[in-house]
Specification:
Growth Hormone, Chain: A; 402 residues; 15 helices
Length: 402
């Protein structure tokens, strides 16, 4: 097994971080371009938001496919092939002739983007010892955040200097370099044991997870919270591109630096969880998210950015607790249990535009804030319900022991 801080550990960890960075710059680069693309193609806010929604939906659909397939054919080959196809599709998108072809290419790209997230941590689990795994996963998740920030800033800046095609071209060329380095650095698997795919046991494991109320609560919380979080950023670009702000794509990309609040929130949540039950931490995160949404109602740009930073802190605080909760409460097949969490997570992201669009049409950003509060109240109740269930289960186990 690969040990922490060895040369091989650094090579593998850097490769996986670069792979993760590549996935998320490609997934999120179009987000600051939405107001510009709406004008270019003459479509509605709902239609243009599909550029993000169809990609996250097809990504969600691919997770269980690639996760299961990797057990049979290997993880490295899936990561390599899907990253190459992702890069090629980004370059093809840069010359898409119309809005319909752009959407179709994003559907295909979203599906292959799921290849690395579905199997990267499993690859680490196969090859790293326990300490090396924990340290590598922390760096890998940081790369997820940096990819999301970097893709949006890169996409917005490139579009400001050229046009939307320039944005995809730049992201595609950066991806070529990242994938070449990934291909070079990632070592061959030494401890992977292929297992024949068996549909029956795989479906049985998924049914078992979906019948576990402690898992369903976390799935619902993660999916609903991400549905609001990621789509608030889409609608805030529409708000800030219009008067009185009039921000161009370069500055719209910069607002995603507020994501760094989420990086801090993830770190802090681990420390708080050592003192408080995880569902209580989820409730705290959702409450902070609700507070940040309230702050964004201010007309002052600096308060809007502060509110988005608070939102990111609260969301990632709750999300990190919900995802680790799944690992703790899955009775078996923890890999598919975690994959299901990501399916709900990205499915929520894809549905957020459909949910928030009527609120945007009725009340602009104030309407989006109201719609957000309704869903966040539901997620708060889910966290409270999980706390009640865990407390009841703990009380029952104490009675049995006595």
């Amino acid at each position: 097994m690969i040990e922490a801080h060895t040369r091989e550990w650094w090579r593998a960890t850097l490769a996986l971080c670069l792979g993760s960075f590549t996935v998320f710059i490609n997934l999120y680069a179009p987000q600051p371009l939405l107001p510009s693309l709406r004008q270019t193609f003459g479509v509605s806010t709902l239609a243009v938001s599909l550029i993000m929604s169809v990609a996250t939906l097809s990504l969600a659909a691919s997770l269980l496919v690639f996760g299961t397939l990797s057990d049979a054919v290997g993880r490295r080959i899936i990561m390599r092939v899907t990253l190459v196809i992702t890069t090629l599709l980004t370059l093809v998108i840069s010359v898409a002739p119309n809005f319909e072809s752009l959407l179709l290419l994003r559907v295909l790209q979203g599906f292959v983007l799921g290849g690395l997230p579905a199997v990267a941590i499993a690859w680490m689990g196969d090859e790293f010892d326990k300490r090396a795994l924990m340290m590598a996963v922390a760096l890998y998740i940081s790369a997820n955040t940096l990819g999301g920030i970097g893709g949006r800033i890169m996409g917005g800046f490139a579009a400001e200097q050229g046009n939307w095609q320039t944005s995809f071209l730049v992201v595609g060329l950066v991806s070529v370099v990242c994938v070449a380095v990934f291909w070079r650095l990632l070592p061959a698997a030494r401890h992977f044991q292929p297992a024949p795919f068996r549909l029956g046991p795989a479906l049985a494991a998924i049914r078992g997870h979906l019948r576990n109320p402690l898992l369903l609560g976390a799935y619902g919380l993660g999916g609903l919270a991400f549905m609001i979080f990621i789509n608030q950023y889409s609608y805030i670009t529409f708000r800030l591109s219009d008067a009185p702000y009039g921000l161009g794509t370069q500055w719209l990309g910069m607002i995603f630096l507020t994501y760094l609040g989420g990086t801090f929130g993830s770190v802090v949540s681990g420390r708080v969880a050592q003192r408080l039950p995880q569902p209580v931490c989820m409730m705290i995160g959702v409450a902070i998210f609700m507070l940040g949404t309230l702050v964004t109602l201010s007309p002052a740009l600096w308060l809007i950015l502060l509110g988005l930073t608070i939102n990111a802190f609260g969301f990632f605080f709750a999300h990190s607790m919900a995802s680790s909760w799944v690992g703790r409460h899955a009775n078996a097949a923890r890999g598919s249990a975690s994959a299901l969490y990501l399916v709900f997570y990205y499915s929520g992201a894809s549905l957020g535009g459909l949910y928030l669009e009527p609120f945007w049409q009725l009340g602009a950003w104030q309407g989006v804030a109201l719609g957000s509060w309704i869903v966040l109240a539901v997620t708060f109740c889910l966290a409270f319900w999980l706390q009640r269930r865990e407390r009841a289960a703990h009380a029952g186990s104490t009675v049995v022991q006595e």
